[in-house]
Amino acid sequence: MVKNDLRSLGPFEFLAAIDLPIFVLDLHAHPNTTPIFQTVSLQKLQAIRGNQLKIGGKEARTDPSNVAFLQWAVSSPQASTLPSSVYWGIPWSGRNVRDRWRIIVGEVGGSLSRDDICLAERSCQNETRIPPQECPESSQSQAQPPPQKPPKRPPLSKEGPVPQKSPRKRSTAFTSHSEDSISAFPLQSPKGTSFEDVVRQHSAEHCTLFDITEHEFKESICPHLNFFMGFDWASTELGAIRSWSTDLCRMVNILLNDPRPAAMYCGESKTMMYNESYILIAGEKHPGLMGKFFPEAWAETHAEFVPAFEKAAETGTSLMIDDACFYIARDGYLEECYCSLSIIPFTTNDGRIAFYNSVFDTTKKVTMDRRMAFLLLLSQDISSSRAANDFWRQLLRVLQRENADIPFALLYSSGWENNENPRECSRPKQTLNDWVLKGLVRVPEPHIQFPSQYSTDEPIEDFLPSFQEMINSDTHTLLLASDGSMPESLVQNLKSANNADVYESAIFLPIRLTGDFKRGFLILGTNPRKRFDDDYRVFIELLSRQLASSMAAAVLLELEISRSKMAAEFATQDWNLLSKKLAIQTHETSEVESRFRRMADHAPVGMFHFDLSGVVLYANEDYYRYSFPGLIEHPLNATSTMCWYRIIMEEDHAVMNREWPKLLDGEKVSFELRLKRPFVADEIIGGENVAGSTWIIVSAYAEKDTDGNVVGILGCITDISRQKWAEGVQRRKMLEAIEWKRQQENFIDMTSHEMRNPLSAIVQCADWIGTSVLAFEGNSKDVLLPREILNEYADAAQTIQLCAQHQKRIVDDVLTASKLDSDLLSIAPVKAQPIAIIKSALKMFDGELQKSRMELRFHIEPSYRKTSVDWVHVDPSRLLQILINLMTNAIKFTQTEIRRKIAVYLGASLERPKGVNGIQYLPRNAAYKDQTADYRSDEVVYLSIAVNDSGIGLDEMERDLLFKRFSQTTPRTHVEYGGSGLGLFVSRQLTEIQGGQIGVASQAGVGSTFAFYVRTRCCPTQHNGPALPEVASHSHTSILTPARLERIGTDLSLPANPDEKKKTFGSMHVLIVEDNLVNQKVLSKQLRSAGYVVSVADHGRQALAFLRTTHFFPPNTVPLDIVLMDVEMPVMDGLACVKKIRELQRTGHVMGHIPVIAVTANARSEQIRIAKEAGMDSAVVKPFRVPELMPEMDRVLKEVQEMVRRRSGSRSASAPPF
């Protein structure tokens, strides 16, 4: 394994690991003086030498000193080695590899100070200025005395001398990290040029170093990297990141870029840090592990790993621990895990010892090995069974052995152990009533008593209620304590050996001989520290198959032997027939081969013939033309193994690796590959260049000899690059069309739904007014109307007005959103008074506030007076639109509360406001430009407006989804007309194009505060008006008790003949499920006027609660005949509610069939179909008139009654009809 891993390393990886100036030349290239590879040390050397040392580029071929050096480097191309030569004070030597590659190595002597090395490295990272005091050579060039020696590195501990067994003493084991052994190339520069000047001249474009721990860290897209860099390392033994040594920073970069789970323990206390992949190992301990000492981070396993750390520190060698067992808390339980981990010690240049800890999760391998070992042991023990009783004994003996995957077991047999005819095993005569207990495994019998036998007198269903279903199942059944399927006696009395785990699941496993013949069954406990996943399920399936096959082997041995003999005879006949055919084919082989050669040479596709090692034995011209244009990389007589791998893209090597073994196994394959050669056609179709990757389709099969052995691979390749390009274009066009259609449908659905809801209320109110007028027809010219009827007419007129206003708001929101999307909405600031704008907006809601008995207050905050704001340049219409949207939401979600208060606050500031009182402003969208940024040059003032209500409020999850939900186009009507769903979305965009932001603070059950600010410019006062009042201005609307609110639920019409309608519908009870209170009130009054008995619910969950009180749930007696169900509702929508109703009917919890009619604003036929598939008996689309609804209700009732009558047959007439 190690040798294979070593062979997989490339030569550049070895060269890059050598800390010497090295470069490689291609002697066959033209020109051959341009390096194809350079080490980092050479790049640093060139950075310091500046223009004096240039290895590559035009300057290197023109400078005399560099020309001499490069001519020496490419001299004597046939020689295996070059004699050493000195250039710029550095000895250089060269060596040839394969008569083509010339490797030049600089034998650097002397040493550089650590400051010089750091300076050179920083020069490769940026071009920032280096202070002169950090460059010793700079001071020397100015004839100043040489710098003093740097002070000795302080000891790791601040409390005194380093102990004898400290990390400093142990670091002597790491000779590769000894500071004295570090050497570098000599630092020489032209006279009069300081080291600082040389480094400054180096361009940052030659540097490829990347340091995550650099001081000016920019926030990364990786959350774990942000967490790591934001961690308070200064509070740990390691100190702040800027104080870390170079070696530690390098190892931190390796750690954070390691794709495998890895951790690092640094310093005497082993301070812990880890990468993102390690989070899976840490489980619920993340993020608390970061920065902790090892004894504190892994307290449960600390003692076991102390010897390993000490040994690694003393010897300086790495350790590997295989398959260590851990119990990690993750996913809500203590999970059994196995890991192989390595401990690699190293020292940093400040004397600390650290340990690099790579972790490999081997849980799947260990558990699989354990299970496979158990199955192998089971197979070995029970395969020797020759009778049923012997089979049971062997099985119990194997189960008695400790196995974490089977903590306990119960074994029952069918009692057919004696005198069975193997040929009668498949007879469908077996009874499933008699079962005999064969044994218990790790079940405490004194505490749990199980009957030794179940029969008709004592049925096994008392122990396992679902026994018949499980024993007849084709596979195992998972028994859970949570759903009651696991026997209660096992749940209450069985615990693990250390009493730490409770068994909450078990497996019922039938043991069958043939398809319908059950020999017995097992109840197997499951590992409480492993989830029952797919691997566990496979293990149980393998166990089931092993038991079935072993039982069959024991009982049906004689039958199997007979079948084997018959199969052998058939095989012999097939072999003889095949031999004859092969003899005929052999006779024609030479002629077929000749024909194939002629056809292959002239075929319009690339054809090939490989041997088993991948060497090309034959290929026609089209093969080389497709694969190797110019035949440069792949000559016609190439004999190297798998040479065609070089032309395949690295991403498709996995495809080739998968298909090649299939060919070697004799399979026929056809697959697609991409080649490194690009596909470019000299044409443009549909405005796109016909270009992309080169695709080929490979069809190949195995060539076999007369014995059926694979001896070669034959196949062909076809260029399908143009077809692939066309498919990509077609796929993109299709996805764009589908997305456009989806957006169009969502928009139409939303607008249709929100327009139909108020339109339905308008139609019903108008219909009622017209119907009720007929009751006062007569011969008299003047008609006297009762005061109550006049009040109801006024109420209906106000309902129509409110619905019309709602429709206008929907149209305004849609037009505004359309302008925003088209970038056509502009801001037109004018001189205006913010107080006057807000008061005019609040006045619009006087009617709604009086109707809902709400208290409204308007407060001017001290910040407004402090800035002395009176007149500003602002767009009043856009500011008014935002405030109206927020007020509409506040009224909507407050009008049903006991405490109904709304407060509006106005403030101002000269600086951009920050979120206060829990307000969290949404981040600005870069797509919407601030249109006030360049408007005028007056002083900037930010106007802040907040709307606070005492409504239902929002919890944390609803706050997170608030603006996302409102920005979507899903139709949704909230309580009392929630609008088009665009209100808050439009408000957010309007604030942002005015240079502001919007935010929310809310708490469920307390209320909400929506706040926003806009950017304005001050302007002089327009007239001499009264000064602002000294106290906060507010308006308080005191509302008298409106009679119409007391009459919610009363009749809206006077029927012409009430007795006649009550005679027709007097016994019909209707449940209206509607979240829109206006539609709910209007429809309920109309139906009551028509003689119906009406009940109402606001959403699906309330409807289910009401249904449980009706006669459909005996012994309740509340009557109910039909349900009118809205579809779009909060809490639980109509589709979910009707699905739940039909599920209760199927399970027998509901007596009869509950008629449900969908009353919805979703008018498309597809939406109606979905509603009926969910369980609706019919659907009525808004808007509708009650006279149109009643015949549909009668029709549905008759159909349901007829359906129930057909199903019930001779059922008693006293039962509920539906």
Automatic annotation (TrEMBL):
This is Hybrid signal transduction histidine kinase K. One of its GO terms (molecular function) is phosphorelay sensor kinase activity. The keyword Transferase applies. The gene is dhkK_4. Residues 1069-1197 form the Response regulatory domain. Keywords: Kinase, Phosphoprotein, Transferase. CDD domains: HisKA (cd00082), REC_hyHK_CKI1_RcsC-like (cd17546). The keyword Transferase applies. Pfam families: HATPase_c (PF02518), HisKA (PF00512), PAS-like (PF26131), Response_reg (PF00072). PROSITE patterns: HIS_KIN, RESPONSE_REGULATORY. The modification 4-aspartylphosphate is found at D1126. Residues 750-1018 form the Histidine kinase domain.
